[in-house]
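Lecture notes, structural biology module. Today: joint structure prediction for complexes of four components.
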Amino acid sequence: MPQQVSEETRDRILDLAEESVLARGFGSLSISELAQAAALSKNGFFYHFSDKTELARAMLQRYVQEGHAIFMDTVSRTSAMCDDPLDQLLLLLRLIAEHFETLQDGGHPGCLVAASCYHDRLFDAKVRAANRDAILLRRARIKDLIDKVVAMRPPAVEVDLDDLADALCAHIDGGIVFSRVLNSSKPLSDQVLVYRSHLKLLFDPALR
Amino acid sequence: MPQQVSEETRDRILDLAEESVLARGFGSLSISELAQAAALSKNGFFYHFSDKTELARAMLQRYVQEGHAIFMDTVSRTSAMCDDPLDQLLLLLRLIAEHFETLQDGGHPGCLVAASCYHDRLFDAKVRAANRDAILLRRARIKDLIDKVVAMRPPAVEVDLDDLADALCAHIDGGIVFSRVLNSSKPLSDQVLVYRSHLKLLFDPALR
DNA sequence: TAGGTACTGGACCTGCGGTATAGTAAAGCC
DNA sequence: GGCTTTACTATACCGCAGGTCCAGTACCTA
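The predicted structure, tokenised, for the full assembly:
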């Protein structure tokens, strides 16, 4: 009865799978339960995904694409709002922190990249490679922003810019762990603000 | 045939379980395989742990205790090596970074606290509470060190000291993700050094 | 009306978590 | 030397989940 298009059902499965994987881990994801939650038979699930690994691949791909789109969208909004690269970056971080803070009950659902890195032996080399590419792409996009800042004013101390770019993701991934364990969205947004404060110290001449 | 004491076998099981959980996640941990790897029958495993949840509890408990002991040991070594609190803290971070850098092939095995926070719905409230207490304890120990620094010299900008203490764990947890995904120990030690550089900027008067 | 799409239902196999029962080799004790 | 405890093994079993196979079927499009 294909009144419902394939894409819709696929996305519904991915939504439910993502929620479950972030809460219980990939190995504990039950395909029967997942199918039931998506109002499908077990075979209905296997019509869309050949097996669990293909599901994992699709989840990660969608997660990375969506995350990248949201990030780039926020970047373009901030660059429209102010001219100075440092102001743009600081504003971006404030927006990210505010976004995280508005997340209610239970805080951030979790980062699939971080979660899947703790399941990596479950996946094949393709999935791991996609994960690596996703991380390197994000580092590159953040580094673009930092590079623009550095071009205008040198940092207060010497620092590797790749590492500095990675540090944002580190604060976020670490902040997610705190937020989950302490069951509050505050530690996550606070970690973004710690990073923001670090960049201000590094680049803001008014503080020297 | 009790020529081997219970503790030894238990620790052997926990070692193997930890390795497997960090590589594949808790849900994918097979008790049959685990028992076989530990040269035990399946019933031999259940002699030591009543079920998977008790295994998880024991793993986390041991991980947290050992981690705390190593951390406190390193702290006492650094406090014997220099007098100034800032020097002690900066030295501690350098030692931690160096320790991480020496880890070969595949880098850091992973943080069980971070891994288990992505499996938390699998565990009971007791395990989650223990996890929370472990994180708060570690935050408190790091904050002790930062407090001593602040007592001697104020930070360059206002910053929440709890958040600053959390940031170290965030850099480490995030660094572990990078190290695992990029298959190198460097990103992890670099993240510790980024944190170190941040603290120097905040507290070192020579940089102002 | 033919063929593709998006499924359902049911049978089946394998393997795992977990339980139960019976047995056993070694060590410690009295 | 016998008794108990410790630390297991072996075998059998249950229920459930992942996954495969096959036969069908309601709807849509050409």
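Point to remember: Chain A touches chain B through 55 residues (CB under 8 Å).
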